[in-house]
Amino acid sequence: MAGELNERRIVATSKAQDLVFAVLGIIVLFFAMAMLATLVADLLIDGLSRIDMQFLTDFPSRRPSQAGILSAWVGTTLVMFVTALLAIPLGVGAGLYLEEYAPKNWLSDLIEINVSNLAGVPSIIYGLLALGFFVYGLGMGQTVLVGGMVLALLILPIVVVATREAVRAVPSGLRESAYGLGCNRWQVVWSYVLPSARPGILTGAIVGLSRAIGETAPIITIGALTFIAFLPPSPIQASPPFLNFDWLNSPFTVMPIQMFNWTSRPQAGFHENAAATGVLLLGMTLVMNGFAIFLRYHLRKGLRS
User: Considering the entire predicted model, what is its pTM?
Assistant: First the structure.
């Protein structure tokens, strides 16, 4: 009888502790969401009225009412294109190799630990690495290519980890069935494993790009311009070969740097411009994350059907 009462007391105590923990968690969640909503609302109130076609199509100016972000959003687009072109193929390839081909020994374990640790390295360390190696060591200068390379290094561990987790989630029975049909390892990986892991891989890649688009420290470290009133050369030209790669070696700026430049000015008009840039940057990030959710849903739906 005493043992049964003691057991009931322990169960009641555990339920009470769970309830207290759940209530505290809900309170912290609502507090954090309220703080975030307040910050976003303040940003929208200050910057939403400033967004118009003139703001999107004009270059920066010393007059707040005439300043725009044309060079900033074009530079951001070009840098993100280079980042995606470098980080996604390398990250996916490295993740597939580590998960499907690499022998399970101390060396692969060491690589796995270092990849996981690199995902938590502060972004300014990547900027210092790019400054010392790409800018000064290789003499590549402060260009769009270097900006894309440093951000690609920044998100590469994220893409590798996301790829490995997505590949690891593929059922082993799918691989065994493919091997039973006579497929070799490459055919199994390319035709069965990779299509099944594609939703998770793409989601991880887009989440990594969403982080890169707001990074400021590594871009400032490599010497990106804070005031630029011209655009890089167009990647597409009218005459053959119709592709122009001079834009890779062009100076640039990005939206986070433009925000940093405007917030350091004393005039209230520049602060409104910075808030408007923040709204656009937040919108671009939300669109990228929403696209990742949409893509994952439809790819998984296609796999189930």
Answer: 0.82
How buried is residue 24: exposed, middle or buried, by Cβ count under 10 Å (0-12/13-18/19+)? exposed
DSSP 224: -
* Burial of residue 109, with CB atoms counted within 10 A of its CB: 0-12 exposed, 13-18 middle, 19 or more buried: exposed
**Contact between residue 153 and residue 208 where contact means Cβ atoms under 8 Å apart:** no
Q: Give the H or E element holding residue 142.
A: none
Residue 294 to residue 193: CA distance in whole angstroms: 21
Residue 156 tokens, joined: 């590469």
Residues in contact with 150: Cβ distance below 8 Å, sequence separation at least 6, in sequence order:
126, 127, 129, 130, 134, 218, 219, 222
Query: CA 224, 225, 231: angle at the middle one, nearest 5?
Result: 105
- How is the chain split into domains, by residue range? 2-48, 53-304
Q: Residues 17-66: pLDDT tens digits?
A: 888 888 998 999 999 999 988 988 888 888 888 888 888 888 888 888 88
CA nearest neighbour of 231 among 82, 85, 68, 86? 68
> In angstroms, what CA-CA distances link 96 with 101, 198, 292?
7, 12, 20
Domain spanning 53-304 has what CATH number? 1.10.3720.10
The rounded Cα 287 to chain-centroid distance in angstroms is: 12
Counted residue by residue, the chain has a size of 305
